Amino acid sequence: MGTSFQLRLLTPDESVFDDQVEAVLVPGENGQFGVLTGHTKFVTTLVAGELRYVQGGQSFKLAISGGFAEVSPAGVTVLADTLERPEQIDLARAETAKKEALAALAKKAELDEAEALHQEARLARSVNRIQLAQSS
Q: Model's pTM, two decimal places?
């Protein structure tokens, strides 16, 4: 058995990455999970967080805003709402989104449940983007 497997990172707009990797770490709904070659099959929901993969001994990071992952012994396919490399993140825009979400959530009692969930997700996405951009 080899030490690499196929990783496909897809968004509704593009194929972000499709190549062999040695490992991937993904933010799943039930916590982060790692995948190495030959992993057992499963499908899971993803949340906003940092997706990492190792290729050629080098580690790469992307901000993911949620989606789904399908894992099999042959590889991993991530269907993400959005994926951004650190250099693609507009830090000013992410800071503005964070401030707006915090302001909206300060009045959470006035929001309906759907809007409150939307603002919480917006806050999580913006914080994730800021952390990834600042750590690179």
A: 0.85
